[in-house]
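Predicting holo structure, zinc ion bound.
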Amino acid sequence: MGTAPARGPAVGAIACDPIGAWCLSCGRTLRQVVHLRDAACDACSRNPRSAARVWPLVRLGEYRSELRDWILALKRGHGSELGEALGLALARQWMNVIASLRAGESNAVEALATADVQPIPMPWRRRIERGNDHARRLAAAFAQECGLRVSCRLAQQWGDPQSRRSGAARRRREVDPSFHPERFRQRTHRRLLAGWHENRRPNHTILIDDVRTTGETLREAAEVLGRHRPELQIGAAVLAVSHDDPGLQR
Ligand SMILES: [Zn+2]
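Done. Tokens:
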């Protein structure tokens, strides 16, 4: 592990992967840079249905070297400058991808330009321990650069995966084996305001997270957000993608 920088890098110093270097569904690195419309790994091309819930997925790069150091520093709560610089770089990467997709043809993509920005919520305990919610910080910088609004419709309800396997969740599962705790819940508005919010909610959401590993977090978040709104289009912007599996590359 390298030394974590205390201050943020200049945005220009953050190297981003060229567009077409990763799969737009799962984020895996492709063997070579391809045209954006072909940016799908073998696994996602074979099985587009399962991959389609969160699309497109935009990343800065793989989870390694400098980017990894910056993300680790961000998680430890090092300076807001770092979060701002990374959020800004991610926003620019996102807008480049969307602009390229729009130039292609896709109408569906057009609407992503008016999406709301949804940070993946942190477990409250970790947020209190660290006194820092880095996903929200990233989302704020991202939204500002894209001219979008941050929305916080998701909440963690079982804390981190560890606590889902213990405590209340475990005890309840002992009583009811079919009980499967969901990591997220959707915040509800008071009834009087519900209709108002309903009318104002965009049909598109961009999930913001630091690292995508298995994709489970993004999938769970998308599932909860889309449960009552199948028409909701959900994209994701993550700083880095981890666990590249060379066997699955195109
Ligand atoms: Zn893929």
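Residues 1-6, 246-250 have pLDDT under 50 and may be disordered.
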